[in-house]
Amino acid sequence: MDKTNQKVIVVDAGLAGLRLDRFLSQACPMPLRAARRLVERGAVTVDGQAWGSTRKLRAGQEVRLPAMEEQAPPEIPSGGGGPALLAEDGRYAAFRKPAGLHTVSLAGGGGESLEAMLPRLSPEWAVKLVNRLDRDTSGIVLGAYTPQYEERFRELENQGLVLKRYLAVVQGALEGPAAVRRDLDTAKRSKTRILAQDTPDALRWTTVKPLARLGADTLVEARIAKGARHQIRAHLSALGHPLRGDALYGGGGEGPFLLHHWSVALDGFEASCLPDWEGVEVPLELLRP
């Protein structure tokens, strides 16, 4: 291996014990499949020796691989098409769920689910979904590869370190940004009740920003940290701007409503996926962090 253009990583205690492919996907970072391809073609050495992807590393070992050239950010994929794996890094995987598909399998049937499709979408590794979307909400559903990463996800959520960003079409003209803090009662599964008081828990707030007018309606971005059942739908209704077509929460017009989980970021992992709503153009320049 040419040592003049290499990246050298010394394994620290925090990543010791990982398989080589998973170590590369986290330390570099890169998709897990890309890490395996590097190892398979002999481009990675550990203490000067070629290793297989499945061998586990010890603290202090020296990993060498080709230095990666800086690349332009990839285009954000569209939400069009069926269920798909969008991104993975050995810890988490992000899947695209189209509207009309359940996130998890329902007792007694009820139609197809993203959960039931995971063996096909992630055939090499078992993955557990760690968030849910309503059947008619599209976008990103996150999965964890191990119970430890699932627990880490919950810890990050409780610290407010998971950023979930949604796009939605709401009824009426929203003139400026807003933060909705109304407390919610989710005891009834069919509909979340909007309470009179605000919640002091910032993890349960929804922030909303208008992006563009769509005739009598508004394209908005909504951000949440943790979330509760129907939180965004209920909070938009409390704001006086329910989702267009969301009759359950007071939205007028014909359904289905348009709500899409377009971006998630946590602990160095990011995934994004834009909706493919007919007649709605999303202004990318306004989707800054």
TrEMBL record:
Top EC class for this record: isomerase
GO term, biological process aspect, one: RNA processing
Enzyme Commission numbers on file: 5.4.99.24
Protein species of origin: Fundidesulfovibrio magnetotacticus
Protein name, entry field: Ribosomal large subunit pseudouridine synthase C
PROSITE patterns: PSI_RLU
InterPro entries xrefs: PsdUridine_synth_cat_dom_sf, PsdUridine_synth_RluA-like_CS, PsdUridine_synth_RsuA/RluA, RluA_PseudoU_synthase, S4_RNA-bd_sf
Taxonomic lineage: Bacteria, Pseudomonadati, Thermodesulfobacteriota, Desulfovibrionia, Desulfovibrionales
Isomerase in keyword set: yes
Family to which this protein belongs: Belongs to the pseudouridine synthase RluA family.
Record keywords: Isomerase
ATP-binding keyword on record: no
